[in-house]
Specification:
mainly alpha; 11 helices; homodimer; 2 domains; 3 strands; Four Helix Bundle (Hemerythrin (Met), subunit A); Arc Repressor Mutant, subunit A; 3-stranded antiparallel β-sheet; globular; DNA-binding
DNA sequence: GCAAGCTGAATCGTATACAATATTTTCAGA
DNA sequence: TCTGAAAATATTGTATACGATTCAGCTTGC
């Protein structure tokens, strides 16, 4: 087996230890950005070397990732990036339609100025990522649009549920995506924004439903794609767009 | 400080070790049943003695409980049974109204025979617990009614979200309840069942909304009640109704 | 009498060592 | 060459030890 541990670098400075939160975020992002493919075995020792932390802390972080369903813990085997099944995929999108339908109605019925500002800033970021061609950033930003609505609805609990669902959606896309999104779909975040700001709640709800079904319809729930194995490369800091 | 560890017994046999799952369930139930009051400090060493397990395992279990928001982890201080604030209480019930409204509509639009059987069995259990006067069992069963709908809707993910929300609701009631439920409210699970089985979806949704608002209206979100300290007593196996 | 600081006990955070389990390799026999 | 068992290796599960932090009670100075 070739050495998987070499691109780590653990941040920037040599001696500055990362917090658990930072390590968690690094792994989480790598998974959501498709740098760590579903099914990848996250070996504890390897992660220890990469982040220069003890196994105790890594285990606690992996447990948290597992609680959020982005990794699966298998007894005596270890942690693996989750490989959502077709049934899970349906469930995730069904839950999203319910939650996001409610959320977008809430914000559309009473759009605030901060909402407008947040959405416009976000759309600019989304466009920037797409122009640059940073695929990881694009994926992250698109999820972020949906999370933004949850945050603006001032529902932290629901926002947390949705954060899990969007992360799982990203895994679902990684495993089952059959074809890339077309230009029409890419524009739907703009349309949603306009409907929300125009207080056209019913239309916004309907478009959100179509938007989510559109993503789902691009999946081929029969096929799956194989995992990759290079932890170190996946967990490097991306030089592209900054995280939000 | 008096000795808090003595009623443990750790199950039945002396030498049979409990699984993590069992320990988790024991603590979770004790919290939801109001045997461990909100704010109670769950000291690791104490739990170790009670369940005869190492601190490593206890810490992992406490982390899971924290992920489900029934305990709060405070750095260098330890784990405490969550003490929901008034804002959290509002959020929890708002989320419940959304989720449970959808769920009850789903089951009411297509009630199955297994649903009918499950609901009727459940109502009998609920009544039995109330007749016996086992307060812990009553609380657990009432939550279970709501979870039943989620399970019957075949939405495991949403069911898990709701499991967290009902557990938190139990804590909210423990902290903020101003007066006990009246007979009318106690009967609403029956009425909900009838509406669902009669396929009167709109009425069922409306009653569910009223039911949840009724629970919320019995709260006094200003006052709070002090925690208790007797871990060992709280974590004993209840001799009453069996768990489901 | 009371606030500030100090000291010791209690408690938590992490690393490390060892045991248990899983995986891979080796090698004999057909 | 293939198959199966057994040894060797790799990986995870848990306990324990030690350092760091917090808390309670006490002392000291005002």
């Amino acid at each position: 087996m070739d050495d998987v541990v070499e691109t780590i670098d653990a941040g920037s400075g040599p001696a500055d230890r990362l917090t658990n939160e930072q390590v968690y975020a690094r792994i989480f992002d790598a998974i959501v950005d498709h740098k760590l493919r579903p099914g990848t075995h996250l070996k504890e020792d390897e992660l220890c070397e990469i982040f220069r932390v003890g196994r105790t802390r890594i285990r606690s972080i992996l447990a948290r990732l597992s609680a959020n369903h982005v990794v699966e813990l298998v007894e005596n085997r270890g942690a693996f990036v989750s490989r959502p099944t077709a049934e899970e995929a349906c469930e995730v999108f069904r839950a999203r339609r319910m939650i996001e339908g409610h959320l977008i109605r809430r914000v559309a019925e009473n759009p605030t100025d901060t909402l407008r500002a947040a959405l416009e800033t976000h759309l600019a970021h989304e466009k920037a990522a797409r122009d640059i061609g940073d695929q990881g950033a694009v994926i992250r930003r698109c999820s972020k649009f949906h999370l933004l609505l949850a945050e603006q609805a001032e529902s932290p609990i629901v926002a947390r549920f949705l954060r899990e669902l969007t992360a799982r959606s990203s895994l679902i896309v990684a495993v089952h995506e059959a074809r890339p999104p077309d230009d029409c779909e890419l524009d739907e975040h703009h349309e949603l924004t306009e409907l929300v700001l125009a207080r056209r709640a019913d239309d916004a709800v309907a478009l959100m439903e179509r938007h989510l079904r559109g993503i789902e319809s691009r999946l081929d729930l029969a096929s799956q794609q194989p995992p990759a194995h290079d932890l170190k490369a996946a967990l490097q800091v991306t030089a592209g767009q900054p995280r939000d």
